[in-house]
Write a structure and sequence with these properties.
Layout: E1 10-13, E2 42-43, E3 49-50, H1 56-65, E4 79-84, H2 89-98, E5 100-101, E6 117-118, E7 125-128, H3 133-144, E8 151-155, E9 169-172, H4 179-196
Parallel strand pairs: 1-4, 1-8, 4-7, 8-9
Antiparallel strand pairs: 2-3, 5-6
C-alpha cells in the first residue's frame, strides 16, 4: 500500500471505465435514482445499475485520510478531482451526488466517516464536460495554484496522457481502478518526483 508519504497534492480521476464500468453518456438513461440508503449503487430509468469498481470507495477514503506535511498555509489534505470529457456532464454529476460511498471498514478516528457519504463530497474539484483534459487541468491549476508536478491523473484512455505535457503524472488504468493500479501510480509519482528533485 502507498500509505507512507510523500503524497501528491492533487489526485485526479477520470470517471468512465476508470471509477465505474460504463460510459455515462451512452450506457445510461436518466433520470437516476437510488433505492433508499443503498451504498455504491445508483439506478438509471431502466434500473441499469451504476457503481464504483470494488476498490474505489476504499481508495477515496485512503486519500481523504492523507495529509501533506509541507504545506505552509491552508488545508493540508490531498485534493481529489474528477476530470471527465463526457458529453453528459449533468448525468455524471447526478450520479456522483446520488452514489453513497460506504464507510471504510479498516479505518477509525475523528476524520473518518462512520456513515455512508455521498460520492460528490470526496471531490474537491470537478471538471466534467467535453473537451481536452489539458483544459481541465489548466482550470484546476488556476483555481488551486497546485503545481502540475504535484498532480497525478488516473484515466483509462491513453490519449489523455497528453496532460504529461503540463507536468502532470499520468497513470493508465487499463481495466478499472483497483488498489494495485492506484498504489503503483502513487509510487510512480514518487519515483518521478525524486528523480527531478
Amino acid at each position: 500500500m502507498a500509505t507512507e508519504g510523500p503524497f501528491p497534492k492533487l489526485i485526479a480521476f477520470d470517471l468512465d471505465y476508470t471509477l465505474w464500468d460504463l460510459w455515462i453518456d451512452t450506457h445510461v438513461d436518466g433520470p437516476l435514482h437510488r433505492n433508499g440508503e443503498t451504498v455504491n449503487q445508483v439506478l438509471d430509468r431502466n434500473n441499469q445499475p451504476i457503481r464504483f469498481y470494488r476498490d474505489v470507495p476504499d481508495i477515496l477514503h485512503t486519500i481523504r485520510a492523507w495529509r501533506i506535511e509541507d504545506r505552509e498555509e491552508g488545508d493540508n489534505k490531498v485534493v481529489i478531482a474528477a476530470c471527465s470529457r463526457t458529453s453528459a456532464p449533468a448525468l455524471a454529476r447526478q450520479c456522483l451526488n446520488l452514489l453513497l460511498v460506504p464507510p471504510p471498514p479498516h479505518m477509525s478516528g475523528e476524520d473518518v466517516e462512520s456513515k455512508p457519504v455521498v460520492a460528490a463530497k470526496f471531490f474537491d474539484e470537478m471538471e466534467i464536460y467535453p473537451g481536452s483534459k489539458l483544459t481541465h487541468f489548466k482550470k484546476i491549476h488556476q483555481r488551486t495554484g497546485i503545481p502540475y508536478e504535484e498532480m497525478v491523473f488516473f484515466d483509462d484512455e491513453r490519449r489523455n496522457g497528453e496532460v504529461e505535457k503540463l507536468g502532470v503524472t499520468f497513470i493508465h488504468v487499463p481495466i478499472g481502478l483497483n488498489r494495485k493500479v492506484f498504489d503503483d501510480g502513487v509510487k510512480h509519482w514518487r519515483k518521478k518526483r525524486s528523480e527531478t528533485a
